[in-house]
Specification:
Elements (H helix, E strand, L loop, with lengths): L1 E8 L4 E6 L5 H16 L8 E3 L1 H4 L3 E8 L2 E8 L4 H19 L4 H6 L1 H11 E2 L2 E2 L4 H37 L1
Length: about 170
């Protein structure tokens, strides 16, 4: 099971964090700081896999990838394949690149809801749901269409309610 997904910049500011097992907000912040301290102390030429048992509990691993000014971090237990987790980071970043045309930190900050939607299409409840970037983007586009349809439907609902109120006053 995937325990957490974190995206943080090179200064340690979390830009996205999602924990799939409950952690109080203070504990989440502490975990993010600890993960950042581990990542920034590692040399560039070492493995992207870290034993995270001391941070997240027994049997946990951490895999990360550093792209430009962002660290993409996945925390998982022994039920997951470590190379599959590294590939899942690649799928996530490729999908973000296709969506935002070369994703950067500002895209993550200003499109938080869309990035959460993309992540939910890839991982739901700590389980991998989809790994095909085209399918993920198609689902995100469908959700965007539904949201725009829902917002136009909501604006149409106001008219009958106001006409109902005028009918009631007669």
């Amino acid at each position: 099971m995937i325990r957490a997904v974190m995206v943080m910049n090179t200064q340690g500011k979390p830009r996205l964090s999602k924990f799939y097992d409950f952690q109080p907000p203070q504990k989440q912040q502490e975990l993010i700081r600890t993960v950042y301290s581990v990542l920034c102390s590692r040399p560039e030429n070492v493995s992207n896999f870290v034993n995270a048992s001391s941070i997240f509990g027994p049997d946990c691993q951490l895999v990360y990838k550093h792209y430009a000014t962002l660290y993409f971090v996945f925390v998982y237990d022994s039920a997951e394949n470590e190379l599959a987790m590294l590939d899942l980071i690649q799928v996530f970043v490729e999908t973000l690149d296709k969506c935002f045309k070369n994703v950067c930190e500002l895209d993550v900050v200003f499109n938080y809801c869309k990035i959460n939607t993309i992540l939910d299409e890839i991982i739901f409840g700590g389980q991998v749901v989809e790994t095909n970037s085209a399918e993920i983007l198609r689902a995100v586009e469908d959700i965007s269409k539904l949201e725009s349809t829902a917002s136009s439907t909501i604006s149409l609902v106001r008219k009958p309610v106001s006409s109902w109120q005028t009918w009631q006053s007669r």
